[in-house]
Design brief:
single chain, alpha/beta, Rossmann fold, 2 domains, 47% helix
Length: 259
Amino acid sequence: MDLGIEGKKALICASSRGLGLGCAQALAEAGCDLVMNARGPETLEAAAEDIRRRHGVGVTAIAADVAQEAGRAALLEAAGDVDILVNNAGGPPPGLWSDWEREDFIAALDANMLAPIAMMKALLPGMMARGWGRVVNITSQSVKAPIAVLGLSNSARAGLTGYVAGTSRQVAGSGVTINNLLPGIHATDRAVALDTGVSEAQGITLEEARAQRSATIPAGRYGTPEEFGAACAFLCSQHAGFIVGQNILLDGGAVNATL
């Protein structure tokens, strides 16, 4: 399917690996020029060069921490006007409700709620003025079904979801859509970190922890960054202009809910 976004400019946050990289690859395959971002410059530039070589699109790589105001300012200055924004940031660490103090919640909010809101606030006016834009926020399946050990993520991402619910309806009339993609477990570094925590807590191997988690997913496996990226690219396409303010699960059926 031709997604109709060849030549558009897409900014993808935290895109040197994992789900962000999957989105960057899919948008490059659709013909978008990219602005890629991550904190680590070496991994970021390697990912950017691979995409340039494979897809022949323009790729600007900006090493910056989007959770910090200075990092966002540097990224936005380098990016300029963009047509597509994919907000993404690594999730906060797991733990118990009794573990977290105020500063832990502030850090989670900065990375997973306030940073994407700031990016939208900066870029939505230009999209609206041009009459076209796409924003996809990578959140979590925990927005639909909270995960007890991910209380920091539950809280921050739920706040972002509430913001998007209202904002998306206010900008849709200008040809701009905002939607959220809610990943379940995918084969990324985040999955390795979570499975490592389970293996250490239960005294089992990493492979056993992975098999244990896979058994809870109706699809019987972890998702891949490639299929996640394909879903993101569709939401960014010309065909998705009537999808507004939605929270779309990509979890292999793990969340057992009617709606």
